[in-house]
Write a structure and sequence with these properties.
Blueprint: E1 3-7, E2 14-18, H1 26-31, E3 38-44, H2 45-61, E4 65-71, H3 80-92, E5 100-105, H4 107-119, E6 125-130, H5 133-139, E7 144-149, E8 152-159, E9 164-167, H6 177-193, H7 196-204, H8 216-236, H9 251-260, H10 268-285, H11 291-303, H12 316-323, E10 336-341, E11 344-348, H13 353-365
Parallel strand pairs: 2-9, 3-4, 3-5, 5-6, 6-9
Antiparallel strand pairs: 1-2, 7-8, 10-11
Length: 367
């Protein structure tokens, strides 16, 4: 069962391949790419313990020279200090402009490895092998790379498209249930902003809170449709000049919640789920979509075991203040992605602080 999706760009188009056992069969993909002989695999301890050895063997079998760098995992480690360690490894191994970094891990590893590739020697190759659902359907695709600043998420970064994205669904078997649910937030996002068909498939599924309850066909379908949605949007707007901004649905308030809780209390997917619930309420208040559609979204969020309630210890005023430093602010106005119906969304900077405050309060008080 192999799905292949092309991200069509003016330059540097690339393939997303989705199939079991792809990690063990990476050699044929590497040999088909115009890359040099030297490769560094970047990962974290847990992921590398599970999949690093087989990946290294597959790369060596294809006659590439490979080394690896293990970094600490977690959003709080997504810093320039961690990227410096990749630079050190690149220097030690005499990487050239034709050389390649391979990110084996979730979104944090993918973002840092991509940023290191974008900036080392002014740009070398990167291949993404995402190991979390969130990274598979979102972070690994589209070329957004970066690290966090103490005052905000992803404020330091660059666009740098991968040469290839390899997705092996079997690695999700070792993913903790909480991380699987976090990835489902991004899947729901695609359903709301892009594909009503995907949304309806999720609605009709019996359970979505654990991988064990998904058939292999449904999982393949979720991965393929989500990746296709991301590829469609990125192909039309590579560097977020317009349409691509809709991919930030739920992320505006979500990022503020992550930042204010020190990236420890809620993970990225949980924050996005809460952010989608807030954005859904804003959209209802502004007449963009109906109360019924907002409730359908919230029911789907709950079905995946994700939160939709703003943490009670957060002050609404602090959330509003944090929004001002969001990277989507333009001319001093916060831009929100708001759904117009299931399967379509738009971007607006006409949301008043009062409406945001009302929606946040409603989400904080709801159970």
């Amino acid at each position: 069962m192999l799905s292949e999706i092309t991200v069509n760009l003016e330059t540097n188009s690339y393939q997303i391949a989705i199939a079991p056992q792809l990690i063990n069969n990476i050699g044929s993909y590497l040999q088909s790419l115009p890359i040099g002989n030297k490769i560094i695999v970047v990962s974290n301890t847990m992921i590398f313990d599970h999949y690093g050895e087989s990946l290294i063997k597959a790369i060596e079998k294809a006659n590439f020279s490979v080394s690896y760098k293990i970094l600490p995992d977690g959003e709080r480690h997504k810093t320039l200090l961690s990227v410096q360690k990749i630079y050190d490894q690149a220097l030690e191994n005499y990487l050239e402009r034709s050389s390649t970094l391979i990110a084996l891990g979730g979104g944090v590893i993918g973002d840092m490895t991509g940023f290191a590739a974008a900036t080392w020697l002014r740009g070398i190759n990167v291949i993404q092998i995402p190991t979390s659902l969130l990274a598979m359907v979102d972070a690994a695709i589209g070329g957004k790379t970066g690290v966090n600043h103490p005052q905000g998420k992803n404020l330091i970064g660059a666009f740098h498209q991968p040469k290839l994205v390899l997705i092996d669904p079997e690695v999700l078997k070792t993913l903790p249930h909480r991380e699987f649910r976090a990835g489902m937030a991004e899947v729901i996002k695609y359903g709301v902003i892009w594909s009503d068909d995907l949304f309806q498939q999720l609605e009709s599924a019996q359970r979505l809170d654990q991988l064990d309850y998904l058939s292999s066909d449904l999982l393949q379908n979720i991965l393929t449709q989500s990746c296709q949605a991301k590829a469609d949007v990125v192909s039309q707007d590579e560097k977020e000049g317009g349409l691509r901004a809709i991919l930030n649905y739920g992320h505006t308030v979500g990022h503020a919640i992550e930042s204010l809780t020190g990236y420890r209390l809620v993970n990225h997917g949980e924050a996005v789920a809460i952010g989608m619930s807030v954005a859904g309420k804003i959209a209802v208040k502004m007449g963009y979509w109906s109360e019924q559609e907002s409730q359908r979204q919230d029911q789907l969020i709950l079905k995946t075991g994700l939160p939709k309630t703003v943490p009670p210890m957060l002050k609404v005023e602090d959330i509003l203040e944090t929004l001002k430093s969001d990277k989507k602010v333009k001319n001093g106005k916060v831009r929100f992605v708001l759904p117009q119906k299931i399967g379509a969304a738009t971007v607006t900077d006409e949301v008043s602080p009062e409406i945001v405050k009302e929606a946040v309060k409603e989400c904080q008080e709801s159970t």
